[in-house]
Amino acid sequence: MNPQLLFWVPVALRLSLFLIAAAVVGYFFGPVAGLAAGLICLIVLIVVQLNYLFLLSGWLDHPESEKLPDGWGAWTDIFSRLYKLRRDDERNRADLSEWLARFRQAMSLLPDGVAIMDDVLFLEWCNPAAEKHLGLNNSRDKGMRVTNLIRNPDFIDYIILGRYDQPLTLSLRDRKLIVQIIPFENRRQILVTHDATESERIEMMRRDFIANASHELRTPLTVINGFLEIAQSQPDLDQSVRMSHLKLMIEQGERMQNLVEDMLTLTRLESIDYPVRAEHVNIHNLLEQILQEAKALSGGRHKISMLIDGPDIQGSNDELRSAFSNLVSNAVRYTPEGGSIEIAWKQTEAGVQFSVKDNGIGISAEHIARLTERFYRVDKSRSRETQGTGLGLAIVKHVLLRHDAGLTIESEPEKGSTFTVRFAAHRQTLA
Length: 431
Hints:
Elements: H1 3-29, H2 31-61, H3 74-109, E1 113-118, E2 123-126, H4 128-134, H5 138-141, H6 146-149, H7 153-161, E3 168-172, E4 175-184, E5 188-195, H8 197-233, H9 239-270, E6 279-281, H10 283-298, E7 303-309, E8 312-315, H11 317-333, E9 340-347, E10 352-358, H12 365-368, H13 380-385, H14 392-402, E11 405-412, E12 416-423, E13 428-429
Parallel strand pairs: 7-9
Antiparallel strand pairs: 1-2, 1-5, 3-4, 4-5, 6-8, 8-13, 9-10, 10-12, 11-12
Helix pairs in contact: 1-2, 1-3, 8-9, 9-14, 10-11, 11-14
């Protein structure tokens, strides 16, 4: 039915009733009384309508569905429809607020930065990742021009040229960022940032690994091939010289074999196809074997002591033996003759820990963070003298990761080093 009819029909009916009532009064009490009665009824009707208009005006100033007044007559239908419209609007607003909250929560969890700007690059909103990448603050910088907040020449040129089809690689705040602006709608732009620092570091490690592995393998191969060429070109070579060459070839072959074995060990430790085989590790027997190997390697040149005061643990006996042996053998190799090495297995409040302490040559602070990288050497010339492959501490790192353990290194040049391995409490066993 036409909404206008819904309003005017009840009004016409009420006017008709008032006129009939006035006519009845006039019939019984005279025309003056009837006219007065009709006028009073009309005034009452007008006052009622004005009252509802006043209530409606007040509600429009603060349109809350709970405060909508009750109606009478045609106003009942009007207020009912207004209530429905208001409830629908409140429901839509609640849905919109919920979706906006979800959007902001999702954006805040993204590892990539997202900043929304208008067509003249004034910041409207940004997520925490964008704040971290670009040095922005959403509450402080909202409404400010992004080019005034990010004062980088490459970024300014990128904005001026407007070639947004290609991302920009940017060095900012000691991070490598990939930045791209994506226009959307008519008056909005999205600034997206991706932190490529870790990817770049991994790529650099990969390049260094390939270069260092090639270099390490090339040296023994050069020696072996060189001596083979000499032996081939000089069949009557003196026996003592030939034996000397064969000895060097065997040493270089063993060095190359050790390098390949360590690389294969690292590959296996990093593979998810080879989980840790949990077994009871008899720490006393394991460390006694490592102690005897360390004394044999030292040849009486060092004072080596050991303290065992802690329980056994669960893990891979072979992997832990490899890790502990690497730490102890490094201490022997890098401690001058007459130095001391202390091996300890102790129970602590956080769990058991293994430590190797020496008073050897020590390590400068700038090298400590990179010691567990593949082929990283503090002193390349000394590493060759000790016949190390450069992969020992990398193997230690991955073994400990597989055993829920962590490695801390304390060292000072010319004073010595302490390597400490801390195991989680759930690894220890009383069996």
